[in-house]
RNA sequence: GCCGAUGUGGCCCAACUUGGUAGAGGCGUUCGCCUUAAAAGCGAAAAGUUGAGAGUUCGAAUCUCUCCGUCGGCACCA
């Protein structure tokens, strides 16, 4: 141990020691408790940014903590290495995406190593390697076999800037999740995974992870799945054999329906409008709505004005027998429910707005529940128009009025009974719909896993036989950046023979969404080189599910929903036995920095010009200090404001710890370890108390992932050691014992945050081979030693602090009461007044209530 | 608009789970020591109506309600 703290020297040294010893390399071991610590794998953009550093510092701290507790910790890392930017780079620089990707990976891996993260690098996987994407393709075939994948022509979300398809999740809010361009609709033949089959399971199984996941992530997923219970009701179309099926959550309001409104894309339109004089008008309107939808720039908060056109058709309300007009409306979505709604303006805001615009009648059929329900029974106003008396829609539940025999029932009962009635009479049924759509995975891209199917003129769509996997990406392709997959122009890729009939055939040229790769990568980490299966079931059963997952909130819906789906699918094909992949989730906050000149804090980014390069920081302060600051500056879920002065504070602390260890290093190793029977000086006793209190506190903090307070506690312990007045020159054996105990605890508990300096100091304290090499364990708190010898008990008079008394811990209630009442200051408040009662909280306070 | 978080010294934050002395830690500020001087280092100090109001309670930063501010998600989903 040098006299001075040289971060660079220490860090290089221990990184080498760890690499040589393979100390972070683990294998299944039934004799130890297992812990899977997982951080979201990065996209290999080329450079580590502070967000990465934060993410992996958190995971590394937890890994070290569990390791020191004797767990068998798997802590792997890999690369989400398929995706757009590699292809953009290929276009721009005329190199193969693989070349660009692998250069980036090499650079970032080196950066990771420089940070000193404790990964088991033997388990590294990269999505773009055939060894990995072979299994993406294998899963595709498995799902195809089970009918979980299908192909359909459908309007898809199209990013005009990147010229590719986006999933619903990727085009949330009408903009591309990556580049922000306004998303358009296009009709394309696409492959879809039936995620909707699992909609209910995705909701139900949330109860298994409720305790370990942030509420807001679960809420976001619940909103996204968007379950809604109601009923389907069929409205016959007058003078035809057709029926229009609507979905409603408020069948109790059906007597108030003044129209049926269908989506512009509704299939019945073409069928029923033939021969109508209004045909052209309706068609023009529908075309206009569709066109508008394709290009409309929808700002958040902005709603399109409701528009519609009357088709001239009439639908018959199956409950009332009433004839109501059928309209086409721009506000009805074909993708949701049945693409048709019953319009009940009195009780739905959208329908109200629509009715106002076109002067349609408004009939009130729900009344607020009052104590005088009787009067509604007679339906005095049946058939009346309430458009003048209702200034806005009444959307609450209530009691039915103007609803024939159903009048007088409460909404709740009516909704249930009316749906059942519809079912019994063959014109409807109770129904549940979801907002969640099937997952469109086709991408018109080169840099992704090729979809393993072949199109044969004779045999149709033929899956690539398992033995022919992987379907490998070609070495050469032309990257033009136009809408078609570059694979389509690679003859040697496209042209093949049909596996069934051996005739010439063509390969699918679309590749898979990269979220496929990241849906199951952490299972592959468990058995990364398996050549005969995505992974060995037994090995995966040992390591998974993931105990703790750490990553950004931006993946709350997309990645985390897909991976939950994937897990259930793998369970159903027999690979695993549980429902949920991740027991605990931590979503770390952004790293922000001031935008020069504005005083505004924004997420670090190239475009905002407020990025801070981790390499540069390591160069100045060392990896340990960067990591310590990042863990200390804020709780992990919070935004972290980057402050150079903060990191200087971190270095200062490390230097002080280092200097302290250095100063004591020669006075400690020879002190006997069984000195506990000796008598300790007051200073030594105080220090020991602080040491054990700190151990207890930090252990607790770690379990709750409160790293910032752990570090604060370590700083306190060092301060206490400084304040103790103990010095190596004058310390007795028992003093030295207490100091060694404090320093050893301090160093060990610092290891998760600043492993390099901790290793160095641990050897300085006389342990050969360092923390990892010597098999050191997390210190254990001795409750007895942590207990205070004397407590200061506040005494309140009528709830106001008036005096303090001292007492030993666990002083009986009666004694405390007497001591408080005997106190001179207390008596000045109680003399001459009536003591109503005395509240004594043992070890905490006494409150005297006087009148 | 709906849903959910959150609001504590100048700043980042602790105490909120379990009501009991408002302050642990860091940054910044001021002062002292050290120094020819400065930096570093060491030592010390100042600073809050806990967003506002009400309720519950002997006692509220903590529990409940209302309002305000900030952040996030969703938003024609029938």
Question: How does this model look, in words?
Answer:
There is one protein chain. By secondary structure, the chain is an alpha+beta fold. Among the domains are: 136-194 and 438-514, no CATH class; 228-433, Alpha-Beta Complex (Isoleucyl-tRNA Synthetase, domain 2); 614-786, Isoleucyl-tRNA Synthetase, Domain 1; 791-850, Ubiquitin-like (UB roll) (Roll), CATH 3.10.20.590. It is 37% helix and 19% strand. The protein has 28 helices and 32 strands. The strands form ten sheets. Strands 2-1-24-25 form a four-stranded parallel β-sheet, covered by helices on one side. Strand 21 and strand 22 form a beta hairpin. The structure holds one RNA strand of 78 nucleotides.
SSE blueprint:
Blueprint: H1 7-21, E1 34-39, H2 50-68, E2 72-74, E3 78-79, H3 84-93, H4 97-115, E4 125-126, H5 130-145, E5 149-159, E6 164-166, E7 184-193, H6 199-204, H7 206-209, H8 215-225, E8 228-236, E9 243-248, E10 259-262, H9 267-273, H10 279-295, E11 308-316, E12 323-329, E13 340-343, H11 349-357, E14 366-367, E15 399-400, H12 411-424, E16 428-433, E17 439-440, E18 442-443, E19 453-456, E20 460-463, H13 491-494, E21 495-497, E22 504-507, E23 511-512, H14 514-517, H15 521-524, H16 537-543, E24 546-552, H17 558-572, E25 582-588, E26 591-594, E27 601-603, H18 614-621, H19 623-632, E28 640-641, H20 644-664, H21 682-703, H22 707-723, H23 733-750, H24 755-764, H25 770-773, H26 783-786, E29 791-797, E30 800-807, H27 813-822, H28 824-830, E31 835-841, E32 845-850
Parallel strand pairs: 1-2, 1-24, 3-4, 10-12, 24-25, 26-28, 29-32
Antiparallel strand pairs: 5-6, 5-7, 7-17, 8-9, 8-16, 10-13, 11-12, 14-15, 18-23, 19-20, 19-22, 21-22, 26-27, 29-30, 31-32
Helix pairs in contact: 1-24, 3-4, 18-19, 19-20, 21-22, 21-23, 22-23, 23-24
This protein binds one RNA strand of 78 nucleotides through helix 8, strand 9, strand 13, helix 11 and strand 28.
């Amino acid at each position: 141990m040098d006299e001075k703290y040289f971060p660079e020297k220490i860090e290089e040294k221990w990184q080498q020691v760890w690499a040589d010893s393979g100390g972070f390399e683990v294998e299944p071991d039934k004799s130890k408790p297992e812990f899977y610590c997982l951080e979201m794998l990065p996209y290999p953009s080329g450079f580590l940014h502070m967000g990465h550093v934060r993410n992996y510092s958190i995971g590394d701290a937890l890994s070290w903590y569990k390791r020191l507790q004797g767990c068998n910790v798997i802590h792997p890392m890999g690369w989400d290495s398929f995706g757009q930017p590699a292809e953009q780079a290929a276009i721009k620089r005329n190199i193969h995406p693989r070349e660009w990707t692998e250069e980036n990976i090499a650079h970032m891996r080196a950066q990771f190593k420089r940070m000193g993260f404790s990964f088991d690098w033997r388990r590294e996987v990269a999505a773009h390697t055939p060894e990995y994407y072979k299994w993406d393709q294998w899963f595709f075939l498995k799902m195809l076999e089970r009918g979980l994948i299908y192909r359909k022509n459908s309007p898809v979300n199209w990013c005009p800037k990147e010229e590719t398809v986006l999933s619903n999740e990727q085009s949330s809010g009408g903009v591309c999740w990556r580049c922000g361009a306004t998303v358009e609709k296009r009709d394309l033949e696409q492959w879809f995974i039936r995620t909707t089959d699992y909609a209910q399971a995705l909701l139900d199984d949330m109860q298994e992870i409720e305790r370990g996941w942030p509420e807001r992530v679960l809420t976001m997923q619940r909103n996204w799945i968007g379950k809604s219970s109601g009923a389907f009701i069929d409205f016959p179309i007058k003078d035809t054999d057709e029926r229009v099926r609507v979905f409603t959550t408020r069948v109790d309001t059906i007597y108030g329906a003044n129209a049926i409104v269908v989506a512009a894309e509704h299939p019945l339109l073409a069928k029923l409008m033939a021969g109508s004089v209004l045909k052209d008008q309706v068609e023009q309107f529908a075309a206009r709505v569709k066109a508008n939808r394709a290009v409309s720039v929808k700002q958040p908060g902005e709603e399109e004005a409701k528009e519609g056109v009357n088709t001239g058709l009439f639908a018959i309300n199956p409950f009332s027998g009433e004839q109501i007009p059928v309209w086409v409306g721009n506000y009805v979505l074909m993708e949701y429910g049945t693409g048709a709604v019953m319009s009940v303006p009195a009780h739905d805001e959208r329908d109200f707005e629509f009715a106002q615009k076109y002067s349609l009648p408004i009939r009130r059929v729900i009344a607020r529940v009052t104590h005088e329900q009787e009067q509604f029974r007679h339906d005095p106003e049946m058939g009346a128009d309430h458009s003048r008396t209702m200034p806005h829609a009444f959307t609450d539940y209530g009691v039915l009025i103007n609803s024939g025999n159903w009048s007088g029932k409460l909404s709740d009962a009516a909704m249930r009974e009316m749906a059942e009635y519809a079912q019994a009479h063959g014109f409807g049924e109770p129904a549940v719909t979801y907002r969640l759509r099937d997952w469109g995975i086709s991408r018109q891209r080169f840099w992704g896993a090729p979809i393993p199917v072949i199109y044969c003129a004779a045999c149709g769509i033929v899956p690539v036989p398992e033995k022919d996997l992987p379907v490998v990406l070609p070495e050469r392709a032309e990257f033009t950046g136009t809408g078609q997959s570059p694979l389509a122009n690679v003859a040697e890729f496209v042209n093949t023979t049909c596996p069934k009939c051996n005739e010439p055939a063509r390969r699918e040229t679309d590749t898979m969404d990269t979220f496929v790769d990241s849906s199951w990568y952490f299972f592959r980490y468990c058995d990364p080189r398996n050549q005969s299966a995505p992974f060995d079931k037994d090995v995966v059963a040992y390591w998974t599910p993931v105990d703790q997952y750490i990553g950004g909130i931006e993946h709350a819906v997309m990645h985390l929903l897909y991976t939950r789906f994937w897990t259930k699918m793998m369970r159903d094909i027999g690979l695993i036995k549980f429902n949920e992949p991740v027991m605990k989730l931590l979503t770390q906050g952004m790293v922000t920095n001031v935008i020069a000149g504005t005083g505004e804090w924004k997420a670090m980014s190239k475009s905002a010009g407020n990025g801070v390069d981790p390499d540069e920081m390591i160069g100045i302060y060392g990896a340990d200090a960067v990591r310590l600051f990042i863990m200390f500056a804020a709780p992990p879920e919070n935004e972290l404001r980057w402050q150079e002065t903060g990191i200087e504070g971190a270095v200062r602390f490390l230097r002080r710890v280092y200097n302290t260890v250095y100063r004591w290093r020669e006075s400690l190793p020879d002190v006997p370890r069984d000195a506990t029977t000796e008598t300790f000086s007051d200073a030594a006793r105080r220090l020991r108390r602080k040491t054990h209190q700190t151990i207890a506190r930090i252990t607790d903090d770690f379990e709750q992932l409160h790293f910032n307070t752990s570090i604060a506690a370590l700083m306190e312990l060092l301060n206490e050691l400084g304040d103790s007045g103990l010095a190596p020159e004058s310390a007795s054996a028992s003093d030295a014992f207490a100091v060694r105990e404090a320093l050893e605890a301090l160093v060990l508990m610092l290891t998760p945050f600043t492993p390099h300096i901790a290793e160095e100091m641990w050897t300085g304290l006389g342990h050969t081979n360092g923390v990892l090499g010597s098999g050191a364990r997390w210190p254990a708190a001795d409750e007895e030693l942590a207990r205070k010898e004397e407590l200061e008990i506040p005494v309140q008079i009528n709830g106001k602090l008036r005096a303090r008394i001292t007492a030993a811990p666990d002083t009986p209630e009666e004694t405390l009461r007497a001591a408080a009442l005997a106190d001179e200051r207390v008596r000045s408040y109680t003399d001459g007044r009536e003591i109503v009662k005395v509240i004594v909280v043992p070890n905490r306070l006494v409150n005297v209530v006087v009148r």
